[in-house]
Amino acid sequence: MIMTLFSCKKSNDEPKSKPVLLSSGLWKISSIGVDLDKNNTVDLPYPLENCEKDNTLEFKSDGTGISYEGATKCDPEDPDTENFTWALKNNETILSIAIPGSFFSGETTLITLNSTTLEAYLDYTDPSTGTELRIVFKLIH
Questions:
Q1: Cα(89)–Cα(24) distance, rounded to whole angstroms?
Q2: What pLDDT digit, counting tens, does each position of 46-103 carry?
Q3: How many contiguous H segments (helices) and E segments (strands) does the chain have?
Q4: Alpha carbons 83 and 66: distance in angstroms, whole number
Q5: Residues in Cβ contact with 34 at an 8 Å cutoff, skipping those fewer than 6 apart
Q6: Nearest partner of 137 among 45, 53, 61, 23, judged by Cα
Q7: Residue whose C-alpha is closest to residue 56's, from 68, 73, 47
Q8: Which of 79, 97, 81 is nearest to 89 (CA)?
Q9: Number of neighbouring beta carbons within 10 Å of residue 53
Q10: Quick one: pLDDT at residue 12?
């Protein structure tokens, strides 16, 4: 009985913090689209091209990250990697991300963040038309 007490392991069922979840590996785009009625679901899916499907994001614990272009490039001139910065704000409900030239840049509102899924939305105003759009994206490990 004494051996049983000392051989018990501590449970690893403790929930991980959002920064730990974000920095736990590479994230790949699963889906993206427009949410017309702003209910956090995609109404108009964006058809991802093969050159976009293999791109990944790596969030590092220090608030920096690397965007990897993947083996298939949409434009051969695109760099293989691009550095970015990120931060959690507003009680960790907002993921602020700055990837130069990417639609992922801005203040995104987290919908889901767990060990396998990062889902968020970005409210965007088209500068040429003034049209307001909600872009919902889902990343997976």
A1: 19
A2: 999 999 999 999 999 999 999 999 999 999 998 999 999 999 999 999 999 998 877 6
A3: 3, 9
A4: 5
A5: 42, 43, 44, 46, 133, 134, 135, 136
A6: 45
A7: 68
A8: 97
A9: 12
A10: 57
Q: Please list the helix, strand and coil fractions of the chain in percent, rounded to the nearest 5, in that order.
A: 10, 45, 45
Half-sphere exposure of 104 (CA within 13 A, CB side): 27
* 57 vs 22: CA distance, rounded Å: 10
pLDDT value, residue 13 = 60
Of 86, 78, 77, 25, the residue nearest 56 (C-alpha):
25
pLDDT (tens digit per residue) in 15-42: 789 999 999 999 999 999 999 999 999 9
Pick the closest to residue 33 from 140, 130, 119 (CA basis).
Answer: 119
Burial of 57 per CB tally in 10 Å (0-12, 13-18, 19+): buried
**What are the structure tokens assigned to 122, written together?**
């970005």
Tell me the C-alpha distance between 123 and 69, whole Å.
Answer: 25
Contacts 24+ apart (CB under 8 A), 116-124: 116/140, 116/141, 117/30, 118/21, 118/22, 118/27, 120/95, 121/35, 121/40
